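Design job #97: recover the sequence.
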């Protein structure tokens, strides 16, 4: 992953603007609110198909001199830019996602409005705002925005609509796009009915049946696939309000025709009434007993997160799928049957946020251990639990660490808004 500061420095060194980056000498004032909106829309509809940058604090008319934004009275953070977009009348009420980042170059603070890449293109207004017209599709060609009183060329507009419908994507990216709509995946079987008591299942996409999701029992994991006791890979099961029964690990394959595009693992329990992905684990640092602090996590823009959403909303029949309400996997705690495992699992917006948080936690090593205490396998092992992975004290310790890390994540986000 390219460091943002390094990427912005490289763009400044080019000494020219481009298809996904623009330089501004200073922040937009009240007289230029329409320019802020117009620039964000153009960047959100960029044809480079990537995150775009409005780089504030670079004077392109003076040999791209770096200017300090600390004293700019019009300076905005992420929340202020989001609030600015919130009351603008976008078509479909779908707005660009923006984040304001600050970096230091040559001893000066400069700000970057990062306009996140999205498949919701084209973004456009349904009602006029000052000089920004409704129903006009604005984009950016090389270093030039579409004029306020014009619309992009038809071939550029067509491409943006194709992007929305996933027509420009390679197979894996298209599968991820299709997974966003969990109610379009139907069971393969007689009259659209699938048995939950089978260790094998297959679902196809309603409009693109060449894409399928298949699951099968993984007999290589745990006790021939059966989770007969809670261990470190599924420590979050310790947080469920009551014990699950008949818990098995399955392989989930996302396929395009006969080609497996992606595979992951999931836990199916209680006759398939409880299905969750087997989240990734990562080590954070060691405690004073030389034991690694590990945690489970997921990133919202990942295929694992979308598969978890699909699992939480999958049903045995087409009729059930169509009639049921969609519940986000994070909100599973609203069900009466289970609490959400996300109480002890960290949820990140994307890989970048995950990396930033890990770097932040390195500075909280000592404080974190004071909050969570210590676990030492050498002190807690006994005849019954010959493995750390199944030691109940270790499972409880991982859950405690997960809860504390979630609190740190909440606090860290609030200080960075």
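Job complete. Output follows.
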């Amino acid at each position: 992953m390219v460091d943002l500061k390094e990427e912005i420095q490289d763009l400044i060194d080019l000494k020219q603007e481009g298809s996904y980056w623009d330089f501004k000498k200073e922040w937009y004032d009240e007289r230029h609110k329409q320019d802020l909106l117009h620039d964000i829309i153009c960047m959100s509809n960029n044809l480079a198909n990537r995150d775009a940058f409005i780089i504030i604090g670079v004077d392109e008319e003076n040999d791209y001199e770096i200017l300090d934004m600390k004293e700019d009275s019009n300076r905005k953070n992420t929340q202020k830019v989001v609030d600015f977009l919130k009351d603008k009348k976008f078509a479909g009420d779908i707005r660009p996602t923006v984040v304001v980042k600050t970096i230091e170059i040559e001893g000066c603070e400069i700000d970057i409005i990062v306009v996140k890449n999205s498949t919701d293109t084209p973004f456009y207004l349904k009602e006029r705002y000052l000089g920004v017209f409704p129903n006009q599709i604005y984009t950016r060609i090389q270093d030039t925005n579409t004029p306020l009183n014009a619309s992009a060329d038809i071939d550029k507009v067509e491409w943006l609509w194709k992007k929305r419908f996933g027509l420009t994507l390679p197979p894996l990216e298209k599968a991820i796009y299709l997974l966003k709509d969990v109610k379009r995946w139907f069971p393969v079987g007689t009259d659209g009915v699938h048995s939950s008591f089978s260790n094998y299942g297959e679902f196809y996409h309603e409009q693109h049946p060449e894409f399928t999701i298949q699951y099968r029992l993984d007999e290589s994991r745990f006790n021939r696939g059966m989770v007969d006791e809670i261990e470190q890979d599924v420590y979050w099961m310790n947080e469920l309000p009551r014990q699950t029964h008949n818990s098995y690990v399955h392989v989930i394959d996302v396929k395009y025709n006969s080609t497996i595009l992606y595979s992951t693992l999931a836990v199916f329990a209680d006759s398939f009434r409880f299905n969750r992905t087997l989240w990734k684990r990562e080590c954070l640092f060691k405690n004073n007993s030389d034991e690694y602090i590990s945690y489970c996590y997921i990133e919202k823009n990942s295929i694992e997160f979308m598969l978890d959403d699909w699992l939480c909303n999958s049903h045995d029949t087409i009729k059930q799928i169509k009639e049921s309400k969609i519940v986000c996997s994070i909100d599973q705690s609203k069900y009466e049957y289970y609490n959400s495992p996300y109480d002890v699992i960290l949820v990140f917006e994307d890989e970048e946020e995950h990396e930033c948080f890990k770097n932040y936690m390195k500075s909280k090593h000592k404080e974190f251990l004071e909050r969570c205490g210590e676990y030492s396998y050498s002190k807690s092992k006994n005849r019954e639990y010959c493995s750390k992975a199944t030691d109940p004290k270790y499972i409880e310790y991982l859950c405690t660490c997960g809860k504390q890390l979630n609190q740190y994540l909440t606090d860290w986000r609030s200080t960075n808004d």
